[in-house]
């Protein structure tokens, strides 16, 4: 059977840029376009030239090597010609391979938002598409509010789609702009549209307002659509757009799609998708979603101790796809249900080599269980677990030794009569046979302690230059008087872009923080290989 | 048309507890069960009594008022009778209304994981269900790996379902254990099963490994299944379980479900779903997902742009459901008037009487907005909100005034050469015109500060005798250098059994804790009416 080509259209730089809290610079857009070329999408929609200085600048040159570089903008206004519409002219002037026009497909919006007649809107679609084609561009039309419009007035919604197609648009994209359409409706409506525009010319643009942007995209493909619009990690307005990072592996690996469809992405590229997804989160300066399908750190993690040995024996019966085909890893969680096979799987994943029969493994397992009973949660703190394991197996150098510390927080009136708080920490640390005393102020005791700990580690100092504490979480376990405090610290190295988690548990929050901070620095030094 | 009843089965406390990084105590399980009763689910699966001490303790008494309290466990082992199977006996001894047995439905797993014959597995299902029914329990069976099992050996998978049904199970639940089945397959397979077990007895248990747990649950409902298993906010192993917080509004508000199905949740309860979702995240000590369908802070953050007036006139054409029906808010369109009526509603709820026209209300509204922008979250700290409101309305006496404090944590070797940590706090406080200095040691700086603050408040001391700090949560907002720390404290009065939450925000964790502690004591004194 010949497989039909399915096209991927990425709108991270356009619709994704509508996400609250996200604001791309030209430099960031250039870096993301490179990432998208690496992923292998067919179209990169770069933004709306003319709408803002960033997008205008971004479209001064072609920014993709592989993908069709696409500019987004409105169709011409009613009552003026394409030649006299500055918006359309900006699109034609942009250094884009393709132009995606957005057009209303719901008569209600034509009347209320555009204030023109239904026929004027059809004229605008036709004239704009023809102008783009005449200028040598690939043209496409995003039919905004298509599904709601179809439900209100199917004839008019279909007329918009037909007009775009007949004018020469390569793609007519059906947009679920409000995001509330369900998969059954999407499939039925797309199927109805194929009577007017062939599926090979239809695209789907879904939003996640009912948690079904992926399902809606696939429903449209089931009905014949052959272009999917989406974004990296599903970013986008409100609840986000269809997540291409989830859709790509499903389309490539799962029946019936893998047998019937072909993407512009091969198996080798697919193994990069986890790294690409995480790299995008890096650019957004946020921690990747551990539970993301296919690419999340927990996507192939299992906690159940009784299943662990079966998983290691025959992983395919517990995994819907093999993690390595998407560049991810199998993770067997070390938890209080942990067995030795969990532990061995975990050590292998972390690259800690050890013989199955090594008696130190039993001691390590006992220690993990004991510590977890005391409140440690190693599944959330890989780096602390790796240090514990390497120490039990005798492989961690003692880079430094904190002999004592003192932390003080004082709140008082200053000379101006204002209430101020001052936090100060003093740390006495032995490095390489020499005792150093460091002092630091900070925003609070943990910040001061962190500052003093990292202020001067002698010969190791250069190895922790890029280290930053990016998140700090505290939990009280078993509230009440016997309570212990669990501190989780997320660290990041600006130089290597490595990210790791460490843990500390104590009845004293400062002590717990201290443990996690020391683990974080030790882990950084271990990975820097400075011993 | 009579609507068919659809049942919701929550497994937050069982399958949700498999989430990496999540680990519930008995106290937390009790609080979550209360939340689930408030939401209105039909079944609360509390855990696996006998598998670990937490779950065994949790099942010592019935923990729900409204929902059917359900225990999870394995069917009896092959080669022994129910009476001689300690696991099944633990289930029968648990204080549960219903028992959900998990059974293999994939012959491959029967052979490899259970090591028994296909017939022995069917016997185990039958005998276990019959024993539960004989003991007066509602019985149900989770058919593990049902969809993969059906694809490998449909006859055997169907035999498992039929056996459970014929033995008297109220529900036969089809589990997509590996999470890789797509909606089209789910719908076709569930439809095939209805030939053997009526849809009114079928449940669906979906996972999010392809981002389609919600779509798969709905696909099963489309095919006739009438029970959905899921979790709060979709927590669960790997990529999570079906998200009930997303499914409930879709089932209640969207065609065709709202016309055909009836849940045990009415419209009034539905307006609490945003608050319930956020309260659960608070319990997990994590920030709610801003982009979550229906309940996310950005879920109704429609970009106004050039169509602002159209949105204002007819918001329903830009929103797939009205935000207020799920207790959420339209973000860009929240007017001061709407803010003020929210505020009045909150004050009425707390019993704070105030005239609608009182100009101090505008100042209070402005202050709340300013503080929430700075990181305060008053929805999680009723007591701090009430104090803020009463202060703005001029109604809180100044019981005491902390002039200064100093907190010190020292870690050093003691005389015996052991590493010890000592925390000490000194507080200078004016009460009733008299200055007092109190000092206290504690488990960490906050505990020491709490001790010193409450050591001697003069004439108010007797009013805070019963006060205890039961929980303490810390979150870092907007990680990075500009980070601030938010502290939430839960207090309890042993005498009055009152429970309240206070909040503090500062770049310094000790300062933030201090604010929350002072609010907590002030609130206790206010309620004791000692002024």
UniProtKB/TrEMBL annotation, chains A, B:
Keywords: Amino-acid biosynthesis, Branched-chain amino acid biosynthesis, Isoleucine biosynthesis, Transferase
Domain Pyruvate carboxyltransferase span(s) in chain numbering: 6-271
Enzyme Commission no: 2.3.3.21
Listed GO MF terms: (R)-citramalate synthase activity; 2-isopropylmalate synthase activity
Biological processes, Gene Ontology terms: isoleucine biosynthetic process; L-leucine biosynthetic process
InterPro entries in the record: 2-isopropylmalate_synth_dimer (IPR013709), AIPM/Hcit_synth_CS (IPR002034), Aldolase_TIM (IPR013785), Citramal_synthase (IPR005675), LeuA/HCS_post-cat (IPR054691), LeuA_allosteric_dom_sf (IPR036230), PYR_CT (IPR000891)
Catalytic activity: pyruvate + acetyl-CoA + H2O = (3R)-citramalate + CoA + H(+)
Keyword Amino-acid biosynthesis among record annotations: yes
Pathway(s) the chain acts in: Amino-acid biosynthesis; L-isoleucine biosynthesis; 2-oxobutanoate from pyruvate: step 1/3
Pfam families associated with the record: HCS_D2, HMGL-like, LeuA_dimer
Family, similarity comment: Belongs to the alpha-IPM synthase/homocitrate synthase family.
NCBIfam families per record: citramal_synth
Protein's UniProt name: Citramalate synthase
Origin species: Polymorphum gilvum (strain LMG 25793 / CGMCC 1.9160 / SL003B-26A1)
């Amino acid at each position: 059977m010949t497989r039909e080509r399915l096209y991927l259209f990425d709108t991270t730089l356009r619709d994704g840029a509508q996400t609250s809290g996200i604001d791309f610079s030209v430099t960031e857009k250039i870096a993301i376009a490179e990432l998208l070329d690496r992923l292998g999408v067919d179209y990169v929609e770069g933004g709306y030239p003319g709408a803002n200085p960033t997008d205008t600048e971004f479209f001064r040159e072609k920014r993709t090597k592989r993908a069709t570089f696409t500019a987004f903008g409105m169709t011409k206004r009613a009552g003026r010609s394409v030649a006299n519409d500055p918006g359309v002219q900006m699109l034609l002037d942009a250094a884009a391979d393709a132009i995606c026009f957005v057009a209303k497909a719901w008569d209600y919006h034509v009347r209320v938002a555009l204030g023109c007649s239904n026929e004027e809107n059809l004229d605008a679609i036709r004239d704009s598409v023809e102008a783009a084609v005449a200028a040598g561009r690939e043209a496409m039309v995003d039919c905004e509010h298509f599904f709601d419009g179809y439900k209100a007035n199917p004839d008019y919604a279909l007329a918009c789609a037909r007009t775009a197609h007949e004018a020469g648009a390569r793609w007519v994209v059906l947009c679920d702009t409000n995001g509330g359409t369900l998969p059954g409706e999407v499939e039925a409506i797309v199927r109805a549209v194929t009577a007017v525009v062939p599926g090979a010319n239809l695209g789907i643009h879904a939003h996640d307002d009912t948690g079904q942007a992926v399902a809606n995209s696939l429903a449209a493909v089931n009905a014949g659509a052959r272009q999917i619009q989406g974004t990296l990690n599903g970013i986008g307005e409100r609840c986000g757009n269809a997540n291409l990072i989830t859709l790509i592996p499903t389309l490539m690996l799962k029946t019936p799609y893998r047998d019937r469809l072909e993407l512009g992405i091969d198996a080798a590229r697919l193994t990069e998708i986890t790294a690409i997804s995480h790299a995008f989160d890096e650019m957004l300066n946020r921690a990747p979603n551990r539970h993301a399908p296919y690419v999340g750190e927990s996507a192939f993690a299992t906690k159940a101790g009784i299943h662990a040995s079966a998983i290691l024996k025959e992983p395919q019966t517990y995994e819907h796809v093999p993690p390595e085909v998407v560049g991810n890893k199998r993770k067997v969680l070390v938890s209080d249900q942990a067995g030795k096979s969990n532990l061995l799987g975990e050590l292998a994943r972390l690259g800690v080599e050890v013989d199955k029969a090594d008696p130190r493994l039993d001691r390590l397992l006992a220690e993990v269980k004991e510590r977890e009973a005391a409140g440690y949660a190693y599944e959330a703190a890989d780096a602390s677990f790796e240090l514990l394991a390497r120490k039990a197996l005798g492989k961690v150098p003692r880079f430094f030794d904190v002999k004592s510390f003192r932390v003080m927080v004082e709140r008082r009136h200053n000379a101006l009569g204002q209430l101020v708080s001052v936090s100060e920490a003093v740390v006495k640390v032995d490095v390489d046979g020499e005792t150093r005393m460091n002092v630091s102020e900070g925003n609070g005791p943990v910040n001061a302690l962190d500052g003093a700990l990292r202020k001067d580690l002698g010969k190791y100092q250069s190895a922790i230059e890029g280290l930053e504490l990016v998140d700090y979480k505290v939990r009280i376990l078993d509230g009440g008087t016997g309570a212990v405090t669990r501190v989780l610290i997320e660290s990041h190295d600006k130089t290597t872009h490595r990210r790791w988690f460490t843990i500390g548990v104590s009845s004293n929050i400062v002590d717990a923080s201290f443990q996690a901070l020391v683990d974080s620095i030790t882990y950084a030094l271990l990975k820097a290989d400075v011993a």
